[in-house]
Amino acid sequence: MERDCIFCRIIAGEIPSKKIFEDQTTLAILDINPISEGHSLVIPKKHIAYLEEADETTLGHMTGIAGKIARNMIRNRFADGTNLFLASHESADQTVFHIHLHVIPRRKGDNMGIGDWWREKSGGLEEVKIPEILKMLS
Ligand code: 5GP
Ligand code: ZN
Known about the structure:
Blueprint: H1 6-11, E1 19-22, E2 26-30, E3 40-44, H2 56-75, E4 81-85, E5 101-106, H3 114-121, H4 130-137
Antiparallel strand pairs: 1-2, 2-3, 3-5, 4-5
Bound molecules: guanosine-5'-monophosphate (5GP) and zinc ion.
The site of guanosine-5'-monophosphate (5GP) has 13 residues, from β2.
């Protein structure tokens, strides 16, 4: 528990939240400032600041719970689809430094612009750089 971490304080019950799901290791709540209705956060109870500090069990469980929330969204016709998002480090737009997986409900025609943004940004793979990239990532 980090005293100055907002998610640690939510987990400790010091700050109220709208709870979707909770088990021994993980909490899922509604985001306070949703980008679409039902925008949810899956948060490990242990304070882990960045993605690379989380072990496979933690990440696997977070993803499993995100899948459960997505399944409920689809089953209940609350959403037509979902995006998952995780920001790790300031450079990646992380603002709360206790990892969390965003589950973002998507609806047909919601015009979130993610597809457009993706198409605009994508491309430009330089063949000569591929061996170096593979070396760095594996
Ligand atoms: P990040 O930018 O780190 O990926 O996401 C942080 C998220 O946490 C934001 O979507 C923000 O709205 C949400 N958030 C920040 N403070 C609180 C809070 O006190 N309660 C809840 N439920 N969400 C919060
Ligand atoms: Zn924390």
